[in-house]
Write a structure and sequence with these properties.
This protein is an alpha/beta fold. Strand 1 and strand 2 form a beta hairpin. Helix 3 runs parallel beside helix 20, helix 8 runs parallel beside helix 14 and helix 17 crosses helix 19. The mean pLDDT is 94. It binds iron/sulfur cluster. Iron/sulfur cluster binds next to helix 1 and helix 7.
């Protein structure tokens, strides 16, 4: 039997330990019970990792243009182009744009190459989009970028304040940890601060639906309240901090009218302030809702100020806690992946740090000023100042704000090199050179999670085709540019120990990031490295669960800084043309632009379409209805999605997920709508606040198409697709002008043509109701369903879960055929409904039927009856919602 390989999940910043066991051509995945971050638990995304592997849709070979080339030719091409462009235009004319998906070793080599050898600081990372404000806030307050606490603090706290964090969906294993802690310790309270009523609110004793962008006012008000009510830890403040007087003055000035500024009920506000004031063990955990703002850094410091004032930091069960979005956003920070940082958490602006790093590397030069941060970097490409860019493991044409401008920038760029593990992304479509990268399970290295825990990602598969690790591709280009000595790495281990040694160089406890104790790891020790939290200053050191325990901060005087945070309105305000505020974020079962999670059929079943969530009253005013298509537009661009009036949104706000791209939808890149405003200090974009409007997307018909194979081109007004088990599912919307059929009769001919195009040589059955404009057709080959298409003038179409189940059948019987023509299952219990539990693929209808039949009243009883919610627990909020609401049959 193959022994399981211990590795780490490649998705969110929780950093869960995973056991991967290759067996019979598949990889079995389970949680690593020995990993302290998750104790064996995984969320739906982590549990489905085995379904995302394989060589299908992978980029297998290097290409220059459309021509497949040898690695040698591709690397020579990149190296000579970079050399020529630098000679002609200077080092700032080239850039790297990398990713929180890279391993620390990739990051370290990329940063060394750019800052130490090319001599520019034009390297930035997509982590800029999720946590740069936390970095800047930490540095301003503590003198170093560090998260003081650890996950164990969530077990010990008496109050957990979750700010701008839908942890139930975005960091599910932390959310479940909080839920379990509260079951054990009923005195624990949870407050959720979020403009949306998200699934995370299920756990909340108190939800404050603040207006987007008003958090600074909320926490300034709290600071003033704590001071007024005698909660200041006078000794701590006097001995360990500076700037309290001016910070309090600014807070007191801002504290008037907080409830009005935040748009919340003053009694609830008072309740929160009193709860915070009287609870010693309080954690304020924050995530993208805080960071992704034009005032993101001030938001972070307004939170930290409250913990400094009360001295609630560096002790068990308390402190500010940044929950990072990406698996290695922290590792990227450590290795200097940001355009304003050096390796090992040293500062680019600090001459002594530059000297330490350059001497250590023995590099010919060192960048002497900050490079372009993500949004500015693509603006510099657009302006022609950056002429060559190498993009690794990220898809900026989808993920950056003002994404149409990013696309235009890359279209006009002289050289676009993209390293990726998949064959097609919106960004790869614009690449001049495509380099195949090793994927999760094939590469080796380390990642650091939100609690500073360094864990190994280990390879357990051979990379397919000619895919290679990113660090290898960088070293090969560097050598071809003449930098042989600095890049003679043969393994991830050699890179890691160099990074560890640099962190220790001339440190003497002056810099927070010190993993010098890992600098002498042998290859075997590195391979066996157990998860460990930095700092690790000596080899005998077991790692550091909590920092700042001695209240000594990393400014030279050892004191923390209070930072005055005057509230400021978001840069762009709503007006009569754009009266709504667009907010964006993640959904439960998808990751970023779906290049990996999109491969797992069970993850696609939960929310298979891009949606636009809005208040029912706003929908009414905009002339759109639940289930219909709508277009959301801003001054920067537009996207289309299906309207949902789920009850999560406050008046005046809309929400759209970030995951859809041109690869899986005709028009649902929400990045194109998002304004490119950034925080002036951190450079993090304002993804949570774009003035927007919503209008109906008029279509004359709606459709759903299932095929066995993807369709190369669909010329309908609107489409989106997901992969299922043995099929691809398309949702369609059409207008006469674009799809040609002018009448129901034409539409029927068009539908037949489309079906013939996707599955020729099949038996077909179809049903036409010319009067109502309904068409249902199916193609059958060897008695198995090959394709089916249903069209109607309204979005009410047959159940997708039922149609999907027909594709899994080895043969169709007469009742199935009649059901297809009728557009509904004629067999009892044939429709499980849309998926609620991805782990066990349990549908809503199944759960509702069990609730009704057995009179179930708790999620635990549902779990016993139908298994739903008994693995990762990500679906428990939805199961509880089903228990609380009457049955609604829906597809
Ligand atoms: S919470 Fe889920 S996505 Fe995040 S690391 Fe754990 S298993 Fe992966």
């Amino acid at each position: 039997m193959t022994a399981p390989i211990r590795t780490t999940c490649p998705y969110c910043g929780v950093g869960c330990g995973v056991l991967a066991t290759p067996r019979n051509g598949h990889v079995e995945i389970s949680g690593d019970a020995e990993h302290p971050a998750n104790g064996g638990r995984l969320c739906s995304k982590g549990s489905a990792l085995g379904d995302t592997l394989g060589a299908d849709d992978r980029l297998l070979h290097p290409h220059i243009g459309d021509r497949r080339v040898e690695w040698d030719e591709a690397l020579n091409h990149v190296a000579s182009a970079f050399t020529r462009i630098i000679a002609e235009h200077g080092a700032d004319a080239v850039a790297l744009y990398v990713s929180g998906q890279l391993l620390t070793e990739d990051y370290y080599v990329a940063n060394k190459f750019v800052k130490g050898y090319l001599g520019t600081a034009n390297i930035d990372t997509n982590s800029r989009l999720c946590m740069a404000s936390a970095v800047a806030g930490h540095k301003r307050a503590f003198g170093a970028d560090l998260v003081p606490g650890c996950y164990e603090d969530f077990d010990l706290a008496d109050l957990i304040v979750l700010v701008g964090s839908n942890a139930a969906w975005c960091h599910p294993v932390i959310y479940q940890r909080i839920a379990r802690a509260r079951e054990r310790r009923p005195q624990m309270k949870v407050v959720v601060i979020d403009p949306r009523h998200t699934p995370t609110c299920e756990l909340a004793d108190l939800h404050l639906p603040v207006k987007a962008g008003s958090d600074v006012a909320l926490f300034a008000g709290l600071l003033a309240f704590l001071h007024r009510n005698g909660c200041m830890d006078t000794r701590f403040v006097a001995e360990h901090t500076l700037n309290v007087t001016e910070t309090l003055a600014a807070a007191i000035q801002a504290a008037d009218h907080v409830a009005k500024t935040c748009g919340i009920d003053s009694a609830r506000l008072q309740q929160f302030y009193e709860l915070f004031a009287r609870t010693e063990r309080v954690i304020t955990a924050f995530s993208m809702g805080v960071n992704q703002s034009s005032a993101g850094t001030d938001k972070v410091n307004s939170i930290i100020n409250c913990h400094l004032l009360t001295g609630r930091i560096g002790r068990p069960g308390m402190g500010p806690f940044s929950i990072t979005g990406q698996p290695n956003a922290m590792g990227g920070r450590e290795a200097g992946g940001l355009a304003n940082a050096l390796a090992a958490h040293m500062e680019l602006e600090n001459a002594q740090h530059r000297d330490i790093v350059q001497r250590f590397w023995g590099s010919p030069r060192i960048a002497s000023r900050g490079g372009s941060k993500a949004v500015d970097l693509f603006e510099a490409i657009h302006a022609g100042r950056i002429k060559a860019v190498w993009i690794m493991a990220t898809n900026p044409v989808v993920s950056l704000p003002d994404a149409d401008r990013v696309r235009a920038a890359l279209r006009g760029c002289e050289l676009v090199v993209v390293s990726d593990c998949v064959a097609r992304t919106d960004t790869l479509d614009l690449a001049h050179v495509r380099l195949p990268a090793a994927a999760w399970g094939e590469k080796d290295g380390t990642v650091t999670n939100s609690e500073r825990r360094i864990s190994r990602q280990r390879a357990f598969l051979f990379p397919p085709g000619e895919a290679r690790p990113d660090w290898w591709a960088i070293t090969e280009v560097a050598k071809r540019m003449g930098f042989v000595d600095g890049f003679a790495f043969e393994s991830a281990h050699e890179i890691f120990v160099e990074h560890a040694a640099l962190s220790d160089t001339q440190n003497e406890g002056t810099r927070a990031f010190d993993i010098g104790g890992l600098a002498t790891l042998t290859r075997e020790e590195y391979d066996a490295l157990a998860p460990i939290q930095w700092p690790v200053p000596t080899k005998a050191h077991a790692g550091t669960a909590r920092m700042l325990t001695n209240a000594r901060f990393f400014y030279s005087d050892g004191k923390a800084r209070f930072i005055p945070t005057p509230p400021a309105a978001p840069r762009h305000a709503t007006d009569e043309n754009f009266p709504l505020v667009l907010n964006t974020g993640r959904i439960r079962d998808q990751w970023h632009t779906m290049t990996r999670t999109g491969r797992a059929a069970r993850l696609a079943e939960h929310l298979p379409e891009p949606y636009l969530d809005m208040h029912a009253q706003d929908a009414l005013l905009a002339g759109v209805r639940d289930g219909e298509l709508a277009r959301v537009s801003s001054r920067w661009g537009s996207a289309a999605a299906r309207v949902r009036t789920s009850g999560e949104m406050a008046r005046g706000a809309v929400f759209m997920p970030i995951h859809w791209s041109a690869a899986n939808a005709s028009d649902a890149r929400v990045g194109a709508v998002v304004n490119p405003v950034v925080d002036a200090i951190s450079g993090e974009p304002e993804f949570k606040h774009t003035p927007a409007r919503v209008e109906p997307l008029r279509v004359d018909w709606h459709g759903v198409l299932f095929t066995r194979e993807p369709i190369a081109r669909l010329d309908t007004t609107w489409w989106t697709c997901v992969s299922g088990d043995g099929f691809v599912r398309y949702e369609l919307g059409g207008r006469h002008a674009r799809t040609r059929p002018e009448t129901a009769c034409d539409r029927q001919s068009w539908a037949r043509e489309l079906l013939r195009a996707v599955s020729a040589d099949a038996d077909y059955l179809d049903y036409v109701d010319s009067g109502s404009g309904v068409y249902r057709g199916a193609h059958v080959i060897d008695n198995r369903l090959a394709a089916c298409l249903c069209i109607a003038p309204t979005p009410q179409l047959p159940s997708r879960s039922w149609l999907a189940s027909l594709f899994a059948q080895s043969m169709l019987d007469d009742t199935d055929r009649r059901s297809l023509l009728a557009g509904r299952p004629l067999k009892a219990a044939a429709d499980a409904g849309p998926t609620v539990c991805s782990c066990f693929r349990v549908g809503r209808n199944t759960i509702q039927a069990a609730i009704e039949r057995h009179g179930l009243t708790t999620a635990a009883q549902v779990g016993e009856e139908v298994k739903a919610g008994t693995n990762c627990g990500s679906c428990l909020p939805e199961i509880r919602q089903l228990l609380a609401t009457p049955a609604i049959k829906n597809s």
